[in-house]
TrEMBL record:
Sites where the protein binds pyridoxal 5'-phosphate: 228, 266-269, 363
Family: Belongs to the Orn/Lys/Arg decarboxylase class-II family. LysA subfamily.
Modification type N6-(pyridoxal phosphate)lysine: residues: 49
Species, as recorded: Hoylesella timonensis CRIS 5C-B1
Active site positions: 334 (proton donor)
Pfam families (alphabetical): Orn_Arg_deC_N
Any one GO molecular function term: pyridoxal phosphate binding
Gene name tied to this protein: lysA
List of residues binding substrate: 269, 305, 309, 335, 363
EC assignment: 4.1.1.20
Pathway: Amino-acid biosynthesis; L-lysine biosynthesis via DAP pathway; L-lysine from DL-2,6-diaminopimelate: step 1/1
Protein name: Diaminopimelate decarboxylase
Amino acid sequence: MNALPSAACLNTKQTPYYYYDTQLLHRTLDAIKRETDKHAHFEVHYALKANAHPQLLQQISQAGFGADCVSGGEITAALKAGFPANKIVFAGVGKRDDEIRLALQQHIFCFHVESLEELEVVNALAAQEQQVARVALRINPNVGAHTHAHITTGLSENKFGIPLTQMNTAIDACSRLEHITLIGLHFHIGSQITDMSDFVSECQRINELQTELNQHDIHLRYINVGGGLGVNYDDPDGGAIPDFQAYFDTFAQHLHYTKEQTIHFELGRSVVAQCGSLISKVLYIKEGEHKKFCIIDAGMTELLRPALYQAHHKIENRSSQGALETYDVVGPICESSDVMAQGVLLPSCHRGDILAIRSAGAYGESMASQYNGRPLVQGYLSNDFSLEERKI
Ligand SMILES: *Cc1c(COP(=O)(O)O)cnc(C)c1O
């Protein structure tokens, strides 16, 4: 099954741009719902930072998901896309006062507080708004994840969350501060996790903490286990839909919870990565001394992941079935790190060929920049192409 239309169709829009396969997005959302429907206590928030394209957001909100936001801008985007305020959670180590105020005024569901000082600030701002803010403590569980070092978040050396050793102090602070009410705990150990044993470790740590809290007669109704489920970057078509069954079953099996509790998930990458491709055109082929460069019109300004953390994306030449050759596929940006992929085999590339950089729906468009004076990359949904265009 091939998710992408022909090169001629893709060439009807100015490259570079993102192409989003809405059918695949819907199949992915359905797969998530099928699994969560099996577990009465599970609720999923979509992590907007993976991709906040307004039309994608609308479709995700219409499917009934909540939203996980990390800035005031994301809260505004979530509300605009139709996510109900009472399904919005707000995380981040550095929330500004105006962002906290916005969240209070919009009556979002919960603040995920990441430091003792932030607790005091949320309390003070909630007092000014004459509110009692719902908060969950984001605990740094000191659980490693077998993923790239730049995308682990749950180790004590990472900046995220309240250290385990300060959890009790934070809980005491919550009972002292009158304008916040502690409803739960939040965790997030990292991203692009494909080894379910990492999530088992996370569950075990949460179980330990809950046992300890219960001994002190503290019972919290809200447990948020974060996101992080990985996708198959090597096989975007074969692995189009991540293994949500294995993921949710892991938590159902290993996390201890009561009938009074709800378990929340914050999925980003696994929802949108596979439905997006970065569409780019070959500008030049350059014979280097030792290698051949395929210079394309998309670079780190459109897709930062390869330059930022050596991420691997499958690249396809949609215009050619010629003999395979080895290329370094590079962008036009004036940085040596502006390399999409090194030493990849592609059907012989020529100026004007359309390349698709696959599995780019997550952390692609949302990380785009205007460096080198470039316009911000556009994103199109499959239904933005007319029927005539889709036939060519
Ligand atoms: C980024 C992030 C997520 C989403 O992570 P994915 O790996 O894209 O699923 C969820 N929760 C928090 C707190 C995050 O920072």
